Amino acid sequence: MHTQVAIVGAGPAGLLLSHMLRLAGISSVVLERGNRDHVGTRMRAGGLEHGAVALLEKVGLGQRLKDIGLIVEQTDFRFDGQGHRVDFAGMTQRCFTIYPQYEIVSDLLQAHAQAGQEILFDTPVTRITGVDTKQPRVYFLKDGQEHELSCDFIAGCDGYHGPCKQAIPEGVLKVYEENYPFAWLGILAEVAPPSLEVAYSCHERGFAMSSFRAPEISRLYLQCPVDDKSDNWSDDRVWSELHTRMDVPDRPALIEGRITQKSVTAMKNFVIEPMQYGQLFMAGDAAHIVPPTGAKGLNSALADISILAPAFSAFYQRGDRGPLDRYSETALKRVWQVQRFSADMCTLLHRFPDTSEFNWRAQRERLRYMTTDPTGALTYAENFVGLPFEEPA
Ligand code: APR
Fold it and tell me: pTM for the complete prediction?
């Protein structure tokens, strides 16, 4: 078996890459460890920056997004018993669109099916070799048998735990990592949010957040200890804690509904430099992770592909390897800006277990500056609606 680009992982990064390569007439094979349901139903990210929306529209994936995506124009920050709205759309003339990751994946799977392009599900990649030669190889299991795929390039879109990074020789990668001393309990509930806006609360009992995935589906989060378990949280405890942290007199109270999912997620920043080695190019969660406070994980994965797909086109269509050679350098500029914003939002909004009285007071003053001063608010607004994406040709 031979293909031009072997893509490891059928998350949003891998699927968007194979879709964009197909539009450019470049062959690829997507190898995915999980099954179709696993890939299509995971409850992950929920919101798209304006650049991500423009990219998806440009590559023919804009219709359902336009039909069912929900436009958000402001963020409500709650602290010191009050709500403070930042009208980011008014300030930037750009909005944020709630369109869950499973919908993007569903659109991409549909586009692959329509084009007759198979995705190899239940196909774990076990190892890759020869990434510094002209013909790297990907080894994978299918029905218990090991198979081999030779290719010109490998795209490592295999998430944080994937195997691709391991093919890079020791000493090449620099890994940057920051772990936070708290986690998030993520809650999915069958109830409309009090209003179609994202609300963050910085409370002395910890961070809380109210968002949504659809008009009748709320997505809520509570800061919890790193080693907490969702079993420790009865539905009553969840709602009681959400009311305590989120409700303020000047905003409608949260509405309770049936909880359908609870899970605990750790918070971390993680970046590898460079994001490429030889014929291997890493994208999405495989190369960088952000704490989810800034809603950037999915957007960053798509932003990588907006650089990588045109770089493959330049190589195959014009024989120009320059954009591929510069991929990591180009992608990391945006990646680091997103890391910086996500880390800032994470430290600004959570209650650190060992925080001093001074830091806790100063933290709320930083929030006050960000929500009431025009410069502070504009900085938040520009970062939240998203830094520019590369324009696909
Ligand atoms: N072989 C084949 N596939 C693999 C292997 C392997 N050995 N290891 C991991 N994978 C697959 C996973 O099963 C997963 O489907 O790689 C895929 C990686 O997808 P994601 O984790 O969704 O990563 P990415 O496409 O980069 O999207 C990033 O995910 O975590 C969120 O916030 C993040 O929304 C962002 C998005």
Answer: 0.96
Taking only the tens place, the pLDDT of each residue in 369-389 is 999 999 999 999 999 999 988
Whether the CB-CB separation of 140 and 121 falls below 8 Å is answered with no
- What's the Cα-to-Cα distance from 233 to each of 172, 185, 208, 236, 246, rounded to whole Å? 43, 9, 15, 8, 17
DSSP state of 390: P
Instruction: Assess if residue 204 is contained within a domain.
Output: no
CA of 43 to the centre of ligand 1 (A): 13
Q: Which atom of ligand 1 is nearest to the CA of 158?
A: 16
CATH number of the domain within which 142 lies: 3.50.50.60
Closest CA relative to residue 55, chosen from 9, 23, 93:
23
Q: Which residues pair with 127 in a beta bridge?
A: 139
pLDDT tens track for 237-287: 999 999 999 999 999 999 999 999 999 999 999 999 999 999 999 999 999
Query: 161 alpha carbon to ligand 1 midpoint, in Å?
Result: 8
What residues make up the domain containing 144? 2-71+96-178+268-351
